[in-house]
Predict the 3D structure of the following.
Amino acid sequence: MKTVGIAGNPNKPEARERFPELARLLADHNVRVVVEQSVAGLVGRRVAALPLPKIGKAADIVIVLGGDGTLLHVVRDLGNTRALILGVNLGGLGFLTSVRSDGMAASVREILKGQYTVSDRQTLQATLCRAGRTTTTHVALNDFVIGRGALSRVVRLQLTIDGEALTEYVCDGMIVATPTGSTAYSLSAGGPILMPATPAMIVTPICPHALSNRSVIVPGDAMVQCRVTRGAGGLALTGDGQVHTPLRVGDTVAVRRGDRVVRLVMPRGQSYFGVLREKLKWSGANV
């Protein structure tokens, strides 16, 4: 690897320690370093400071220091890049930022030696159609959510899969998630966990009024359409908890697999099931 990008959240408690540590480590390995502009002041040495879209074009790998929210932000702003992405957890749970901060140096050394595995993650593309016209299109790695946030009023959402009607939900909202996002909001709402390579999407209603309404797993190449039929006050479409678009009655949100693939990298020997066991505190039977 000839060029390494550094990005992340400069406001995390460990940031002032970890960013300079990473910059020194990369300098010792004689690789070119490019840094996100917002964290350039923390690296402790003169390096090229670039906006994230330019880092996405220049870097072979981008190392992201922060939590999962930081990584989702960086992935969105990097654009359609083939660069590998390594997440170092300076936050809380951290499914996407799976490398612990105290293991950062060892993991980066292994990766620079070529000792790593790549996990290609599918994305979602959501298109908002209003009065017969396409108004906005967004891409997400984890999920798209139709919901109200702080307001607690039910909404009616009519769902179709590949043009066939499924049902009309009376609920607080709807989540359409990738396998990567299956351990995020969808999991909290009662959805299943899918392995990252599963060619599928998860449709999970939020607090549905009918107890029989449960998550539905649909093929990865399906088209999921969700139409707002009643109760749109304060309703919005949110992508990865960051992109926010207000919705109205009559709006239709169409979600399909995105064209972009996000290439997450793990040190060799680290596995998805190992991450699940650590993050979800799975320790086996107690009997």
